[in-house]
Amino acid sequence: MKIRFLNALPTIAVVLVMVSVSACSTSKNVKGRDFEMSSVVKNDIDLVSETHQRKVLDSLKELSVKLYKRNPSEWKKGGYESLQAAVDALSGDPFPEIEGKRSVDCIRLAFEEAYRGDRVRAFVGGLETMVLDSYDGHRSFYLHNMLEAQKLYDSARNIELASWLLRTKRNSRGELYLLSSGDSEHINLSFERLFGKMINAQDMLAQIMADRTHRQIKNVIQAVATAFIPI
User: Fold this and answer.
1) Is 138 left (phi over 0), alpha (psi -120 to 50) or beta?
2) Distance from CA of residue 214 to its chain's centroid?
3) Does the N-terminal or the C-terminal CB of the chain have fewer CB atoms within 10 Å?
4) Cα 14 to the chain's mean position, in Å?
5) Rounded-to-integer distance, Cα 159 and Cα 163, Å
6) Distance, CA of 46 to chain centre
7) At 176, is the secondary structure helix, strand, or coil?
8) Is residue 30 within 8 Å of residue 165, measured between CB atoms?
């Protein structure tokens, strides 16, 4: 009996993680994923990986909506008819590259003073491709997939840095490149909660993968404020 219980521990842990991820959502109605035949060749970890990735990518889409609402001049730079059209183009598959840049290089582009393009597209598009890289470019996971805990952990640190740059980075005139959470008198905490949700999801999955592979995650100290970690 004791042996059976020990063998069941990994499955129990996965169930608890999925419950905790669902609990983090602010939505009152939680809908489970529809059954797919592909689920037959997936294990519990595969399903957990897809759930975490979906949470992060959905949060990035929500972030793009919030940033475009606060910075309407940005989506108009792309010639879109509406804010929603710009969001749909940004969150479509495959994720866009901006001026041939992706991942952390694309995030940096959003804070370059000489850049005249859509800064929201550069910022969110960079985060999207960086996060996708942390999942080895996959959107679906099967028994043979083995994600690297270190990549997931590093991506969470990059999200933290991107959040800090968004709140603090200013141009030569002292203006924020992108308006987000606001100034000291009027703070919109919904931006912070959104970034926190993404960071927690990546960190949680990193720990699951580290436990699965029995590998230790190296804590990285970002000594330089603009030093993103390559994924």
Assistant:
1) beta
2) 25
3) N
4) 21
5) 6
6) 18
7) strand
8) no
